[in-house]
Amino acid sequence: MLAMHNQIELYEEMTALSARMVEAAQRNDWDNLIALERSVSDLRVRLAGDDNSRLDNGERERKAALIQRILADDAEIRRHTEPWMEQVRQFLGGARKRRQVDQTYGAHHA
User: Fold this and answer.
1) Residue 55: domain span
2) Residue 22's CB: how many other CB atoms inside 10 A?
3) Is 104 a domain residue?
């Protein structure tokens, strides 16, 4: 189980990483965004099963504020990544359709 101060420190670290993820998404720096997401994921694993009962009121409030910041950053990241992901889906869907047409009609011309 994490000590109370360690739990808050990990949430603070996660908040700092999520802010960097926003910057990477704004720059369309997908490689950096992925690397930062891996770091956040590692922190999430370390925070699994964290125990709020051992936090005092101030620590609970700090944790809640950090989580709210992370959620706001996540929404901002999605605002930048979802249009790009839709373009990728359309591109891949178009490539799949081209292959299907080539397989269907290309075989007759061979």
Assistant:
1) 4-80
2) 19
3) no
In this structure, what are the phi and psi dihedrals at residue 24, rounded to the nearest 5 degrees? -65, -40
CATH number at residue 22: 1.20.58.380
**Hey, is 79 helix, strand or coil?**
helix
Distances (CA, A) of 96 to 39, 91, 93, 100, 109: 33, 9, 5, 6, 20
Amino acid letter, 34? I
96 belongs to a structural domain: no
More confident residue, 50 or 1: 50
Average pLDDT, the chain: 86
Closest CA to 15 of 52, 44, 54, 55: 44
pTM of the complete model: 0.74
Residues 6+ apart with CB under 8 A from 39: 17
**pLDDT, tens digit, for every residue of 43-77?**
999 988 777 888 899 999 999 999 999 999 999 99
